[in-house]
Design brief:
With 402 residues, the chain is of the alpha+beta class. It is 24% helix and 27% strand. A 9-stranded antiparallel beta sheet has the order 2-10-11-12-13-20-18-17-16. Strands 3-4-5-8 form a 4-stranded antiparallel beta sheet, with no helix packed on it. Helix 6 runs antiparallel to helix 7.
């Protein structure tokens, strides 16, 4: 298991400044022209049209919910279940490419694992059209989303309860509990630094490498995470000055897609930090609308079926994107189910409904297979066709006995 190794935050800060230069203050947290987040009751029409799922109740402790039933957020590059200690990045696996001990998605600590602990829990909502998860307490509203347009970015926002006039109503101080754990069985050389970004923001920077490569000829993967400062495992008091929203950002990059994961993660973080929170979330929602357009399946008279269909499309699209050809696994990108491997299930069950409505996504799934033809040919020579593939595409799962 990889665990935290302390190192010099000062040295990291000097490297960051030298690589990227200083940035003027961002709009992050300024929230000019703040538009209040929707209330739980605002979702009634979306629920009726099967475009949102809501939960009314006070038991929102993620530990009390079966991990396989938690809502998940993703954009095809990075994904995580709500209330989970881990997130996954497309194409990043740990473990050898063998049938006996197959590789699996590498578990990366998730900074989005935070919640409001002050006030009474009221409920939650999953927006299937805007790809965001909302949590409601008597003190505050939280929204989490994984940005569709900024593929490396994850966002968490908190604002106090507002009244009908758009003014803060109730507590001006709320408690935000970070449940992030800085350890992983799949990562080694984990280092966590607290430092100041070139734009003056306090940030946490996590770097690590995967423990074991899939192939001896393949390198392990470097991982870099840059996130707004919240002390892992600790509670933070957030004080609001009237109608204000506090935004927490995370950017993650890996050696699977970057030659300089740390520099690129920081650059992505700083670019997102320059954007007002309203504009940041609007750009995410517009990217989802551009992706889905008028595509979809309308079902009348069976709300339960409509919910199942719309939810299925939401989870499929949360796990794939046209510019990240890493296949699609049972359980999606936010899950390590079946070790995150691509099976024949992809082409049999998931590819057909995506191809008809989202041809660019369909092309991405085919690209994953085409790029791994050499591995498939090598396996074919053994007269034992591969059952499942990871990042390299070779045989990874024990074949089932029929």
């Amino acid at each position: 298991m990889g665990r935290l190794v302390s190192s010099s935050a000062v040295a990291l800060g000097l490297v960051v400044s030298a690589c990227l230069g200083r940035t003027d203050g961002s709009n992050l947290g300024h929230n000019l022209g703040l538009t209040p987040l929707p209330t739980l009751s605002d979702w009634s029409d979306a629920v009726s049209s099967a475009n949102a799922l809501t939960y009314d109740g006070d038991d929102l402790d993620a530990s009390a919910i079966d991990p396989t039933l938690r809502a998940t957020l993703g954009n095809g590059y990075v994904a995580s279940p709500i209330g989970s200690t881990e997130m996954f990045v497309a194409g990043v696996f740990n473990g050898e490419q063998t049938s006996d001990t197959p590789s699996h998605r590498a578990s990366i600590p998730s900074p989005l694992n935070a919640r409001i602990t002050s006030g009474d829990a009221v409920g939650a909502a999953l927006d299937l059209k805007g790809a965001a998860f909302y949590r409601y307490t008597s003190d505050a509203t939280m929204v989490y989303y994984v940005h569709r347009a900024r593929s490396s970015c994850m966002v968490m926002e908190v604002e106090p309860v507002m009244n009908a006039s758009g003014e803060a109503d109730g507590a001006t101080t709320v408690t935000l509990q970070s449940d992030m754990t800085v350890e992983s069985d799949d990562l080694v050389n984990i280092q966590l630094n607290t430092t100041t970004a070139p734009n003056g923001m306090d940030i946490l920077v996590l770097t690590a490498t995967t423990a074991t490569a899939e192939s001896g000829a393949d390198d392990v993967v470097d991982v870099a995470v840059v996130t707004s400062y919240l002390e892992p495992g600790a509670a933070t008091k957030l004080t609001f000055d009237g109608a204000e929203r506090k935004t927490f950002l995370t950017a993650v990059r890996t050696g699977a897609d970057s030659e300089s994961p740390l520099e690129d993660a920081l650059a992505d973080f700083l670019a997102a930090a320059e954007v007002d929170s309203n504009e940041l979330r609007t750009a995410h929602e517009e990217a989802w609308r551009e992706l889905t357009g008028e595509a979809g399946i309308e079902i009348a008279g069976r709300h339960d079926v409509a919910v199942a269909v719309n939810s299925s499309y939401y989870y499929l699209l949360s796990s794939v994107r046209e510019d990240v050809p890493h296949g699609l696994s049972p359980g999606g990108l936010a899950s390590n189910g079946y070790n995150g491997h691509s099976f024949w299930d992809t082409e049999t069950w998931m590819y057909p409904p995506l191809l008809g409505l989202f041809p660019d996504i369909g092309r991405s799934l085919l690209t994953y297979r085409v790029q791994r033809i050499p591995e498939a040919k090598l396996k074919a020579l053994s007269y034992d066709p591969p059952y499942a593939g990871g990042s390299l595409g070779g045989q990874l799962e024990p074949r089932p006995a029929y």
